[in-house]
Amino acid sequence: MNRKLKNSELDRKTVEEFKEAKKTPIIVVLDNIRSLNNIGSVFRSADAFLIEAVYLCGICAQPPHKDITKTALGATDTVTWRYFESTLEAVEDLKQKGFKVAAVEQAEDAIMLNDFKIQADEKLAIIFGNEVKGVKQKVIDASDCVLEIPQIGSKHSFNIAVSAGIVLWDFYSKIIKNN
Fold it and tell me: Which GO terms describe its molecular function (predicted)?
């Protein structure tokens, strides 16, 4: 029988331990996400995989906000974040810092997520777009590559928080495998 673990048995990091821990070299970029619950969920996923930072761009709300905080469950206290007026400004900042920038979108010549190779010690930034319009074309044009999450159903659409969870787990598992 598998006994469910108590919260006290989960070996959770304190805020200080999280901030001092070696981070996974990934920055999540949110391109005009309108749902504060989605933003909070992305913070939680970023916390789960020790992601370096979350960049909030355009219309994205910023912590502290009660609707972000409600969903983030404290992850806005652990995960570093920055705000940019435009996503293109964030992409420029990341490229200057040596990050490879990948937009997650359905586009011509997109690389399927399962086929995407991560090089050891590569610094990655992943852009997730607006719930309705996706990643802006100008942002796709400025990205180094476009990744697509394979889907075989009829909708070909994930919620942004679900997309972030899928991609972050994929990247994290590939990085762990490389190290």
Answer: RNA binding; RNA methyltransferase activity
